[in-house]
Specification:
The complex is a heterodimer of chains A (183) and B (134). With 183 residues, chain A is mainly α. Helix content of chain A is 63%, strand content 0%. Chain A is globular and about 50 Å long. The chains are: A mainly alpha (183), B mainly alpha (134). At the A-B interface, helix 1, helix 2, helix 4, helix 5 and helix 7 of A face helix 1, helix 3 and helix 4 of B.
Amino acid sequence: MSVGDSMVDEQSAVDESDGGIPSWEDVARTYGAKIYSFAYRLTGNPDDAADLSQEVLLRVRKGLSSYRPGAFEGWLWRITRNAFIDDVRRKKRRPVVPLFDGTPLDATPAPDAVIAQERLDADVQAALLELPIDFREAVVLCDVVGLSYDEIASTTGVALGTVRSRIHRGRMLLRDALEGYER
Amino acid sequence: MIDDPSLLSAHLDGELTDSEAAVIEVHLASCPNCRREFDELRVARSVVRGLPLLNPPSEIFQPVAPATVSESRRHRWLMPVAAATVAVVVAVGVVAAPPTTEVPIRAVAAQHAAGSAGQQDVLLIAVPSEGIAP
């Protein structure tokens, strides 16, 4: 268990207990929000995030027929990450800092505290988008998706030490960008 | 100071072995600079983890080719333009058309006699509703 608080949502994995291949519907239902959140945190743009999420689910649909049960999440996040990298290479442009921070899954009405939280979230999102892409990807995979360093290394194809360094340097840059916030 | 500062993030994430973690804890207890950096890293980590899970738009669950989606989104602005254009054309037509076109018309289908047997060409003719004069 990690030190400190953990806000990463626990995700119920698709059921592979019977040795079968999960259905596309199961994948979409179980991981749709997390894939979209991953895409949004990396791109900062709702349209780009929707396009990227749809591309991921399309690749999942195509790939499920050849998927061999055993390490579904690793397979899924490799697909997701590769779709993102392909998208970045295709567009070769910087993400746009959003004016509005998307629609939270659990939207609750609210006063000042919520407004302050939304402002913080928007600032965090803007700070994420300022990170070099390798750092941003590592931080999002760790702190938004909830992957371990081993899983991130496997997903991104880099050494474990590189993952650790990218996460650390990404967090240091976030710290500088968000100086003054306490949590 | 610690030789490899990334160990602090790894410690936050529970990615160190027990012995490594113990060494870091001992160091943090005696090094205010590293302690401060560790606390700041904890905040940076916490605010990202505090970002809400977002509700995806339903369109992502429709597995069509992404290019089609991008295309349709890119051309979405054409819809109101097209609608406005049709409205203008209709309005101009109503104003400029000769009076005979203002009366109700009905369409009649007449069998086109010409052509080979079995050929079912149908001709639609617009005529005034009172019919064709004998």
